[in-house]
């Protein structure tokens, strides 16, 4: 019986290539299945705004569990990146307003967490972090910023129920907010 080494080598290379292709495709499918974050983009005249969360610009607190600021600062983050597309300075504001559509959809007007019980932190790209109570914010404005030409800035926003709140753990109250980025005319 005659044994053809060349033919066997070609068969083995084809089989190994097929197995490798299946492994690469399977790995990619598994990664996409478990990767819960997605990037939501939108643009204004001069700004590109990118959210790095599945819900994009929505912030929700659905389970009341009052925590200290140090624990709140390690809670779920909402990241927004703002990029200036112009060759001149651009001003903007980041707002955190009530998500009226979600409140109406859930019919939960009477089940909202009082604003004085909600804490917010904003972390800048520079590493600076500021903490507020939602009731302290004027006109829903979290950040007033400027971007140099073609520059970008990343902000991380977190919300939690303050440990100073009188709300009981597991209360049915909740919060629906919306992060909005608006260009500001100077």
Explain this structure.
The protein contains three helices and ten strands. Strand 6 and strand 7 form a beta hairpin. Helices cover 22% and strands 36% of the residues. The longest helix is centred in the first third of the chain and has 30 residues. The mean pLDDT is 85. Strands 1-2-4-9-6-7 form a six-stranded antiparallel beta sheet, with no helix packed on it. Strands 3-10-5-8 form a four-stranded antiparallel beta sheet, covered by helices on one side. By secondary structure, the chain is α+β, with helices and mostly antiparallel strands.
Please tag this protein with its features.
10 strands; 22% helix; 186 residues; 36% strand; four-stranded antiparallel β-sheet; six-stranded antiparallel β-sheet; alpha+beta
Summed up, the helix count is: 3
Number of strands: 10
> Termini separation (Å)?
89 Å
What share of the residues does DSSP label as strand, in percent?
Answer: 35-45%
**Helical amount among residues, as a percent range?**
10-25%
Based on CA atoms alone, the radius of gyration comes out at 24 Å
Layout of secondary structure:
Layout: H1 5-34, E1 40-43, E2 47-51, E3 58-61, H2 69-72, E4 78-84, E5 90-98, H3 100-106, E6 118-123, E7 129-133, E8 141-147, E9 152-161, E10 175-184
Antiparallel strand pairs: 1-2, 2-4, 3-10, 4-9, 5-8, 5-10, 6-7, 6-9
Briefly, what is this?
The chain has 186 residues and is α+β, with helices and mostly antiparallel strands. Helices cover 22% and strands 36% of the residues.
């Amino acid at each position: 019986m005659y044994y053809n080494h060349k033919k066997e080598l070609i068969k083995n290379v084809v089989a190994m290539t097929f197995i490798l292709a299946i492994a690469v495709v399977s790995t990619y499918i598994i990664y996409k299945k478990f990767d819960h974050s997605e990037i939501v983009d939108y643009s204004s005249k001069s700004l590109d705004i990118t959210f790095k969360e599945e819900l994009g610009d929505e912030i929700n607190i659905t389970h009341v569990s009052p925590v200290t600021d140090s624990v709140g600062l390690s809670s779920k983050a909402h990241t927004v990146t703002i990029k200036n597309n112009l060759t001149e300075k651009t001003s903007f504001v980041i707002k955190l307003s009530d998500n009226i559509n979600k409140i109406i959809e859930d019919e939960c007007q009477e089940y909202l967490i009082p604003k004085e019980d909600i804490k917010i932190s904003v972390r800048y790209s520079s590493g600076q972090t500021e903490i507020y109570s939602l009731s302290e914010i004027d006109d829903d404005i979290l950040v007033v910023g400027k971007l140099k030409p073609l520059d970008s800035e990343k902000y991380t926003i977190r919300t939690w129920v303050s440990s100073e709140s009188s709300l009981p753990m597991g209360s049915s109250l909740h919060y629906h907010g919306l992060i909005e980025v608006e260009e500001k005319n100077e």
